[in-house]
C-alpha cells in the first residue's frame, strides 16, 4: 500500500481547516447581521412609540420642583 507523502496530508488538512474557518466566519457574520437588524427594528419601534406619547406623560422638572 502506497501512502502519499506527508506534505499532501498537511496540505489537505490546511485547506480543510481554512474552509471550516471561513464557513464559521460567514455563519457568525450572518448571525451578527440578523441581530443588528433586529436591534434596529426595536430602536425604530421604540422611537416611534416615544413620538406618539402625549406630552402630559412626561414629568416637567423645574427649578422650583427640585
Explain what the structure shows.
The longest helix has 47 residues, at 6-52. This protein has one helix and no strands. It is mainly α. It has one helix spanning 6-52. The protein is rod-shaped and about 95 Å long. The protein is 71% helix and 0% strand. The model has no long low-confidence stretch (mean pLDDT 85). It has a domain at 6-50.
Quick take:
It contains 1 helix and no strands. The chain has one helix spanning 6-52. The protein is rod-shaped, with a radius of gyration of 28 Å.
Query: pLDDT below 50 for ≥5 consecutive residues: which ranges?
Result: none
Number of helices: 1
| Rg over C-alpha atoms, rounded to the nearest angstrom | 28 Å
Helix content: over 70%
Shape designation: rod-shaped
Tell me the span between the first and last alpha carbons. 90 Å
User: Largest beta sheet, briefly?
Assistant: none
Order of helices and strands: H
- Strand tally is 0
Q: Please state the structural category.
A: mainly alpha
Average pLDDT for all residues: 85
Instruction: Tell me the fraction of residues in β-strands, as a range.
Output: under 5%
